[in-house]
Hints:
Elements: E1 2-7, E2 17-22, H1 31-40, H2 42-54, E3 65-69, E4 77-82, H3 93-110, E5 114-117, H4 129-142, E6 149-154, H5 157-167
Parallel strand pairs: 1-6, 2-4, 2-5, 5-6
Antiparallel strand pairs: 3-4
Bound molecules: adenosine-5'-diphosphate (ADP).
Amino acid sequence: MGITILKGDITGQRVDAIVNAANSSLLGGGGVDGAIHRAGGPAILAECRELRASRYERGLPTGQAVATTAGRLEARWVIHTVGPVYSADEDRSALLASCYRESLRVAGELGAGSVAFPAVSAGVYGWPAGSAAQIAVDAVRASATDVDDLRFVLFNDEVYAAFARALG
Ligand code: ADP
């Protein structure tokens, strides 16, 4: 598996699957979630609503992942995962690692060969960039996956630098 880091907007990536840092409602939010829904159009939200009505009546639990269409995006699928809100009192890093592991598991089920990830939990959910990057890199390196092109697409300099350090 090749791991690369890029700076920019994840919605423009030509990959099989784009991962969304969603919230458990699956009904949209700010940050990368808002950008993905805006760029991908209403088909993504329509499928998210169906998932809420069928499989996830109480929302998608933190650390889990589920795929929908990517609508108008170049990608074929959006894989929605729910990162943990950062806590200084409680170690939630296993849940953050689970987001990457579960997203890669879903990607494998879909047969996706290329996947782009944002820095899950590193925005509104408050995770410090250095720690978020290290957990992400360790989690994908530890995953047994058939994905051969894995990209972290980072939106700002601080997070990009953190992922560069974590990759070593
Ligand atoms: P969370 O609620 O999981 O923290 P956010 O969307 O607030 O999710 O932030 C996650 C990361 O995604 C942050 O580093 C943020 O800067 C970044 N981000 C925001 N918009 C985009 C985008 N269009 N492409 C890639 N990353 C983005």
